[in-house]
Write a structure and sequence with these properties.
Layout lengths: L3 E4 L14 E4 L2 E8 L14 H18 L7 E8 L5 H9 L9 E6 L10 E9 L16
Helix pairs in contact: 1-2
Length: 146
């Protein structure tokens, strides 16, 4: 886990609801591509259900972060792409189930006309910082390659 500083409300800036305005730290940078509500077989989970899709998206993010040796505790920024801002409460509920709500990542939410498939309602990308663990250990995943 990285040593991160979360600034919820800089001087002169109103506090955000459920996000930090700035997050910083040092460590190995991890970028996770936008994840959508696909299961392991590539099938859409929760067609027409933003809550089910958001839960699947966060599960996919968890798996991607884990593969990179990171967790939600290391996430410094989330970007939400939704086809309707009315889906944001469902996204926030799924997010709050996996992050420390006292130290939330920075985030942005964007309503888009469409995602790359019409049945998709939510896409989320993540940026994380993972603390280096010491000489010869990069904190990354064990790939089995020596």
């Amino acid at each position: 886990m990285s040593e991160l500083t979360h600034l919820r409300a800089p001087d002169g800036v109103a506090p955000g609801h459920g996000y930090s305005h700035a997050v910083w730290g040092t460590g190995r940078f991890v970028a996770v591509s936008g994840q959508c509500a696909f299961d392991a077989d590539g099938k859409v989970v929760g067609e027409g259900d933003p809550a089910a899709q958001a839960r699947q998206v966060f599960e996919n993010l968890r798996r991607c972060l884990g593969a990179a040796g990171a967790s939600f505790a290391d996430v410094v920024k989330l970007t939400y792409f939704v086809t309707d801002v009315a889906h944001l409460p469902a996204v926030r509920e799924a997010r709050d189930a996996v992050i420390d709500t006292a130290r939330p990542p920075a985030s942005s939410a964007v309503q888009v006309a469409a995602l790359f498939r019409p049945e998709l309602l939510v896409e989320i990308e993540a940026f994380a910082l993972v603390r280096e663990t010491g000489p010869g250990q990069d904190g990354g995943p064990d790939t089995g390659r020596g």
